[in-house]
Amino acid sequence: GGFGVLIAGAVENQGVIICPMGTIALAGGNHVRLDISGNKLISIAIDEETANEVYDYDGNKITDQIKNTGSLTADGGTIILRAEALPGIFEKAINMSGYIKADRVENKDGVVKLISSGSIEISGEISATKIEIGREATPPASVNMPDNAKLIGEESVKVAADKVTVNTASPIVVID
Q1: Among 6, 26, 66, 139, which is 20 to 30 Å from 56 by CA?
Q2: Of 140, 129, 137, 43, the residue nearest 96 (C-alpha)
């Protein structure tokens, strides 16, 4: 158990974050609230969406609000990628081209949540007991999964709402 949390207007992980039976969270927004309860559950609320362009340390415009080209592992835990920005700020809200793993450990399910109202691109590999994309109240604008993407989960992948455009070679269940 434990936490690995990266919060900023835009976040990029190129390295390795490992948090067995804990929570890894990458969140992007102007004002982000992080709450850790007594039972070690974590919640992230984005109070204000990113409203201005974001630049890296070299002065280059950042085009992906949350980008994971590295590895996130929280077996028996939870991995949350959550991005919120006003339209037109980023090309992709979440760009997941790396590796995410949250498999079951000691009868505790691993959960991966990709939450955004912007576009989500998955070209890497996600392995978890349960994979959730979007939320019923705020579905992503689109979810794009090229042929090289892999979603491995014991439960069906769930995409919130029925107005999501999904381009994929992998099976995804869209729920109402």
Answers
A1: 139
A2: 140
